Structures are given as C-alpha cells and as structure tokens.
Automatic annotation (TrEMBL):
Cofactor(s) essential for the protein: [4Fe-4S] cluster
Chain ranges of the Radical SAM core domain: 9-226
Catalytic activity as recorded in UniProt: GTP + AH2 + S-adenosyl-L-methionine = (8S)-3',8-cyclo-7,8-dihydroguanosine 5'-triphosphate + 5'-deoxyadenosine + L-methionine + A + H(+)
Matches recorded under Gene3D superfamilies: Aldolase class I
Name the UniProt record assigns to this protein: GTP 3',8-cyclase
Gene giving rise to this polypeptide: moaA
Annotated PANTHER family: MOLYBDENUM COFACTOR BIOSYNTHESIS PROTEIN 1, MOLYBDOPTERIN COFACTOR SYNTHESIS PROTEIN A
Organism: Mucilaginibacter robiniae
Length: 331
C-alpha cells in the first residue's frame, strides 16, 4: 500500500513541522507580546510530551522529515531534553532544529550535540545592550551574546534572527553583517509581523525586505547572492571575503508562500497550515477524545489538502486571530 504524504490542493508537499512545546517565555519582546505578558495556557491545556511524541510520529509517518522546536522559549519547559531524546529516535525524522532566545540553551549544548541537534537559531535583535533591553524588556544581553560564540565553539550551526524595525535597531544591521566577517554565522533580517498579542492596534515597521536590502547595499558594494534551498523563506547573500552570510526574510510581504513546505503545531495542539491563518483543527483534542492513529492521520491529511494558496488568502479567514502573540502561535 502506498504511503500517504502531506500534499495540498496546489500539489505542494509538506515535509517540515514547526512544533511549539510551550507558549511561555522569559523575555517580553515588544513584537511578540505586551510587557505584562499574555494569558498563558494552563498546564492541563498544554500537550503532554507523550502527546507531542505521538503526533510527531504520526507526522513523520506522513512524510515530515524535519521538525523545528519552538516556543515561547522551548528550554523553559521542564522535561524538554528527555522529550528531544525520544524524538530523535522517531523513524523518518532526519533533522531536529531549535529556535531559542539563547538564555538557557547553553547549559544543554553537550546533550543537544549528543542527540545530533546541531542547528540552532538564536533570536537576537540588537548588538547594543541598551537596545536589547528596550526590545526584550530584559537585561540579558551579555549572557545571550556570549552564548552565541560558545555555541559556535562547540560546533553548532548558528543562525541569528533579527526582527528589523525603525526606531528600534536599524543601526544594528551593519554591525550584524560585520559579525559574519570573522565568524561562520548566518544573520537573518526579518520583517516585523502583526503577532504581538495586541488588540489589533499594532503599527508595523515600514522596513520591508526591499528597504532592508537597499540599506545594506548602500554600505556594501560586493554583495553576492547565494543559491538557496527551493523551500527557503530567506533570500541569502554573502559579502565577498566574509566567512558567514546574511539573509532577508519577507515574513510580512510573504513572497515565499508559493514554495512553503511547513505546517505548525502549537503547544495546545492547534494545527495551522499557515502562520497567518486560523487553526484548522486541534490534534490534542482528537487524542484526548480517543481518536485512533488512522483517524488522526486522516484529519491531518484533510487539513493539509485544504491549505490556502498563500498567507493573504489564509489571513482573510482569520477573523483578526493574526493579532495573537507569536508566543502562542509558535512562529
């Protein structure tokens, strides 16, 4: 019998799952949530690690080969490392990657390497202690910055994610690129997105992907575009002679939707086939209602089959749910 795979109605195959293991975070970044935080999910509403493992196994049986662990901040949840140990043994899973704010990941680096988890994205929006504090509302710059180089020294493939916004961190763009001169870092500049958990009054930055590139091109004359993976969300570049690279992600402009190969599962079991769209089903509820593995598989296959063409079409169905916190959505 031929194995089922995740294919949407436009013929696009999905093989990448972003799994949020918690909505909690020890930062309060302005573009993610209000300073006072959000109404975090109760423990009973969070999926257990056993439920997550069951669902990841189902997804991998349907062709998912890469899982990115996100949050919130994934390392604030107790039990994350035993879960990753079990996850690393799931058949069909070729790669596990992690996105973190860098405050807690360093203490786990030896175990992560043992599990074969070598790719880690660190959210770092400024190289200034003052601006970092203004953006994150936390005084943790020194430990996060030092941790980046500790991860590099340990052999990790490190990407730095920087959300770009006027009056926040424009002056950090060139210093970030200069970091790639002597270090094998990949810095990725992201457009700001409307996911800060507000009432919908968020005013987004005018710095889109074109503005970011034009700004960089004013400072560098020898920018070489790199060949990227067909499903890459970033357009990647390298300054001649520099060790590392930089990329620009049009996360709000959504120019990459046509090749998107990912699906998202929140810490409470909400399945999204697009970051900008509403949840299409809740897999936690299915499991707790006693659904069989084949029934869960069919629910996932049906959800993916009806995926919208792009983020704009998905957003039209959202009824303003796009204003949820990124900590809830899982990125």
């Amino acid at each position: 019998m031929e194995k089922s795979v995740l294919i949407d109605k436009y013929g696009r195959e999905l093989n990448y799952l972003r799994l949020s293991v918690t909505d909690r975070c020890n930062f309060r970044c302005y573009y993610c949530m209000p300073e006072e935080g959000i109404d975090f999910a109760s423990r009973k509403d969070l999926m257990t690690f056993d439920e997550m493992l069951t669902l990841c196994t189902i997804f991998c049986n349907l062709g998912i080969s890469k899982i990115r662990i996100t949050g919130g901040e994934p390392f604030v949840r107790n039990g994350i490392m035993p879960f990753l140990n079990k996850l690393s043994e799931v058949d069909g899973l070729k790669e596990i990657t992690v996105t973190s704010n860098g405050t807690l990941s360093d203490k786990y680096k030896a175990e992560l390497l043992r599990l074969g988890i070598r790719k880690i994205n660190i959210s770092l929006d400024s190289l200034s202690r003052e601006r970092f504090h203004h953006i994150t509302r936390r005084d943790s710059f020194d430990s996060v910055y030092a941790g980046v180089f500790q991860l590099l020294d340990a052999g990790f493939d490190v990407k730095l994610n920087c959300v770009v916004a006027d009056n926040k961190n424009i002056q950090d763009i060139v210093p970030f690129i200069e970091l790639t001169k002597n270090y094998p870092l990949s810095v990725r500049f992201l457009e700001e997105m409307p996911f800060n958990g507000s009432d919908g009054s968020q005013v987004l930055s005018d710095w889109n992907y074109k503005t970011i590139y034009n700004y960089i091109s004013e400072h560098y004359s020898d920018i070489n575009r790199l060949i990227s993976d067909a499903n890459s969300t970033s357009v990647n570049y390298k300054i001649a002679g520099y060790q590392g690279s930089f990329g620009i992600i049009p996360s709000f402009s959504r120019t990459f939707c046509g090749t998107c190969n990912r699906v998202r599962l929140s810490a409470t079991g909400e399945l999204r086939t697009c970051l900008y769209g509403p949840p299409v089903t809740n897999l936690r509820d299915l499991l707790r209602q006693g659904a069989s593995i084949p029934q869960v598989e069919q629910e996932i296959l049906a959800a993916v089959a009806h995926r919208e063409r792009d983020g704009y079409a998905a957003e039209a169905l959202s009824n303003n749910s796009v204003h949820k916190s990124m900590s809830v959505l899982g990125g």
